[in-house]
Design brief:
Shape: globular
CATH topology: Rossmann fold
Strand content: 15-25%
CATH superfamily: NAD(P)-binding Rossmann-like Domain
Number of helices: 15
Order of helices and strands: HEHEHEHEHEHHEEHEEEHHEEHEHHHH
CATH architecture: 3-Layer(aba) Sandwich
Number of strands: 13
Distance between the termini: 44 Å
């Protein structure tokens, strides 16, 4: 029947499966929405508080339906309504930084709402359980809380899949921006100079991964899938930046507490956030960002156009200035 409808040109937008995205204007959500809409195979409903922003208007012009709703506690019934009618949900928890600690509670509330709405497939953006992997020696709550939400989702009566995003290239633009000293850009990087770590552009890599998973739900049911663009050291990142931009640049370590505070003295006023950042990077260096059994090649196999660091620099035209998203 579907083939006949398509053949005679009578298939409508309403015949396409609906995917609801929680946090549609975040980097991951925006990437997923754009890719799903551009595929022409899905309708998209997006949850956001910023329905009048330029990004939201752009999505609406592409055909997305937007729901004005905060990703916060106390809105479960609203979440159920936002998820109702969707065949799939792409779920992220928002950036909840210390002293706030409610990420796990919010994640469970959102997941329960997905199940109550009768959705058939949930894709959650998760990370590794640092507490479990390090036997409690290191703490990175924004990793571990996502892992615990994943563990909870796995107990629910719903098909579920999980993506694990690498470090974001955009972190260097947004949070760890180079500082110009005389004629040289100083890159304050939270990793040791020669430690090679996984990085990715969330704005272009998330969407293809989410599209692939929703396109083959049975194949990816229960899977945890890293999304990686490049595996690269800070020294290599600075060298590539120099090559791509022609600007002078040097690496400066922000790996230890003293070094981090030297570059970002404002963190001294938020000890919880400082401890979380230091715990995350120490974990990554001592144990590896991803668990040893993860397939780090998957995302590039399904998306050969995933950007390396050099391609990211050339695509964005970034020259070391601070950018916000």
């Amino acid at each position: 029947m579907t083939a006949d409808l398509r053949k005679h040109g009578t298939i409508t937008a309403n015949d396409k499966p609906l995917i609801t995205i929680a946090g549609v204007l975040g980097k991951q959500g925006l990437s997923a929405a754009r890719t799903l809409l551009e595929s022409g195979r899905y309708r998209v409903r997006g949850i956001t508080r910023r329905t009048t922003s330029p990004e939201a208007i752009g999505l609406a012009e592409q055909g997305a339906e937007l729901v004005n709703l905060p990703l916060d506690l106390g809105h479960k019934e609203d979440f159920v309504e936002a998820f109702r009618g969707a065949s799939g949900v792409f779920l992220m928890t928002p950036n909840i930084a210390p002293p706030a600690t409610h990420e796990m509670e919010l994640g469970k509330q959102l997941a329960d709402a997905v199940v109550e709405a009768g959705v058939s497939h949930l894709v959650f953006s998760s990370l590794e359980n640092v507490d479990k992997i390090t036997d409690g020696e290191l703490s990175a709550p924004h990793f571990t809380d996502k892992a615990r939400i994943e563990e909870y989702i796995r107990t629910l009566p719903i098909k579920s899949s999980f993506i694990y995003m690498a470090f974001f290239y955009t972190n260097l633009m947004e949070f760890y921006t180079p500082v110009l000293k005389e004629d040289t850009l100083v890159f304050p990087v939270y990793l040791p100079k020669d430690f090679r770590a996984p990085f990715v552009d969330p704005l272009t890599a998330t969407g293809p991964a989410v599209l692939e998973i929703f396109s083959d739900p049975d194949r990816y049911a229960g899977k945890s899938l890293p999304v990686v663009g490049d595996i690269i050291s800070p020294r290599e990142m600075v060298n590539v930046f120099v090559k791509a931009t022609g600007k002078k640049a040097v690496y400066s370590s922000a790996f230890t507490r003293e070094e981090m505070l030297g570059h970002f003295p404002e963190l001294a006023s938020n000890e919880g956030l400082l401890q979380e950042i230091l715990g995350m990077v120490q974990y990554s260096v001592e144990y590896g960002y991803f668990r040893k059994d993860r397939d780090l090649t998957w995302s590039r196999k399904i998306n050969p156009d995933s950007l390396t660091w050099e391609q990211f620099l050339r695509n964005t035209g970034w020259n070391g200035e601070k950018r916000s998203f």
